[in-house]
Amino acid sequence: MADREIGFEVFNQVQSGVPGPLPQDMKDNFSEMFAFWGAIDQQNLLPNGSVEELEHDIIEEISILDKDGGYMIAPMHILQNDVSPERVLKFIEIMQKTWGLQAILLFNAVSPLWEINLTRSQQIYQEVYLLGFWLLRTFHEWGAAGIKYGFLSQETNDRKTFVDLTREITRLCAKYRMLVDFHDNPVHPGGEERTWPNRITLEYCHGQQDSRKSFGPEIAVTVPFINGLSGPLDMANGYYDLNGLQNRSKVDKNGLNSTVVGETARCLINYSPLMILPDNGDVYNQKKDLFRFIRDMPDTWDETRFLGGEPGEFIVIARRSGRNWFVAGNTNDKARRVDLKLDFLEGREYNLIRYQDTKDSHFQKNKESYEVHIGSVVKDQVLTLPMAPGGGFCIKIIAE
Questions:
Q1: CB of 128 within 8 A of CB of 120?
Q2: 337 pairs with which residues across the strands?
Q3: Under 8 Å between Cβ of 40 and 61
Q4: Rounded-to-5 percentages of helix, strand, coil across the chain
Q5: Paired residues of 201 in beta bridges
Q6: Distance CA 234, CA 257 (A)
Q7: Which has the minimum average pLDDT: 35-44, 241-250, 257-266?
Q8: In the chain, what is the straight-line distance between the N-terminal and C-terminal CA atoms, in Å?
Q9: pLDDT given for residue 382 in this prediction
Q10: What percent of the chain has pLDDT over 90?
């Protein structure tokens, strides 16, 4: 199929109620080429079908499309305002029963489902707060672990309203024992996590997908020194398909300006307990030896050390979990070597796995080449670690 040849890996949407191949035909003929997304009828079944019909359809689509994996269950299209919240709840309940689902839900302040009017700042707090109170209580009853909240696309100049609202959303999430990740631009960081530890991360930065106007290697080694002082950052680090996004409106014409090792390093340098990985599973599986560095990273750390760097130039960070250390570095658009003295280790021999750019890696010319080296190290040993332009390094030091 041409779709696969030009890079598509997920077929969206599977629509069983329109002319064309049925889900079983799609699975039989194309499951080695694509994963499938959709298939649940939001036009008639979700708003008007009986509970029994809905449950039967969900179980049937899962049994067909999820055989041997490769199915992301979802409505065929965006839910319209004839689908009541009660029906959404029933949809989630059936998936929980069938799949054991636990969800983190996206809460947009502007929602076509409930048609909130945010055009006047004096209405914002009252309307969104009342909706938020009801929604968060409902999400809690559904068993959601947390929310990702943002996209205040009609915000006004009344920033105090949005600060107050965002803090109230944080408080309500705490009340209902849910985590919260602030996406987009609700408010600047203000130390709220000291009072509300359920506010685990926020997107107070530009990420790689803004590379056409605001992101590149120099910014990548500036953000940790400035934005990172505010706390955990939801940056969507960890792209491995660095040549496949040139056609996005915000991405540089050369694709993402990084190397795969540099991307892996950013996942450690820019800490977030809830890490949103932006690429698809097949891409990570193709580089699973490199991806293992990310996979093995714990959610929290016992110790963090700044080992060197300068804003706009480079940075090296080490984090410890138990007796094991993870260390990562990034550089700007200049190649460099750093000498890393392992004086933070205890007096024993450690196993070492080192991930580094190749000698011809480059953030625009050769983004996806890397090397993996395995060895051992001891306390006070000095490692000389090369970083390609726009790249980095990662090392994992494991106590024997």
A1: no
A2: 386
A3: yes
A4: 30, 25, 45
A5: 181
A6: 19
A7: 241-250
A8: 49
A9: 96
A10: 31
Do residues 39 and 23 make contact, with C-beta atoms less than 8 angstroms apart? yes
Give the integer Cα–Cα distance in Å for 215 and 333.
Answer: 12
Alpha carbons 201 and 274: distance in angstroms, whole number: 7
- The stretch 267-279 carries a mean pLDDT of 87
Show which of 298, 329, 348 is a domain's final residue.
298
Judgement on whether residues 317 and 232 belong to the same structural domain of the protein: no
Checking phi first, is residue 209 left (phi over 0); if not, alpha (psi -120 to 50) or beta? alpha
More confident residue, 118 or 330: 330
DSSP letters for 32-46: TT-EEEEEE-TTTHH
Per-residue pLDDT band at 71 (split at 50, 70, 90): confident
334 or 233, greater pLDDT: 334
For residue 299, give the H/E element and its range.
none
* 133 and 282 part of one domain: yes
- Greatest alpha-carbon pair distance for the chain in Å reads 69
Last residue of a domain, one of 281, 298, 315: 298
- Other CB atoms within 10 Å distance of the CB of residue 155: 18
Half-sphere exposure for 351 (CA within 13 Å, toward CB): 6
* Mean pLDDT across the chain: 80
For residues 152 and 190, membership in a common domain is answered with yes
Q: What is the pLDDT of residues 107-125, one digit of tens each?
A: 554 443 333 333 344 444 4
**Could you say which DSSP state residue 362 is in?**
B
The helix/strand count (H/E) of the chain reads as 11, 15
The helix/strand/coil state of 11 is strand
